[in-house]
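**Backbone geometry record:**
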Amino acid sequence: MTMEWISVKDRLPESEIGVLMYELGGISIGRSCSKEVFAAHNIAFEEWDGAAYYPVCPTHWMPLPESPEKYCDICKNELVACVCME
């Protein structure tokens, strides 16, 4: 899978997915906003600061790559359903 930066002028991501974002200050991880948030506030991206999401204005974005691991080594469940680390 080829990972290439997509200009926000060319296309916005689907609603509420994790993305890598490029801003003039560097690269960060965040998510695309829901269509309702975009329509109401014209905010397309949010970044996580450890406590809350806040709006950001990247120039480019790309989808997050898939995780290299899909299953837990302990319980063999998919990582999204794993309870071993709780």
Observations:
- The chain has a mean pLDDT of 78.
- Residues 36 and 42 are 9 Å apart (CA to CA).
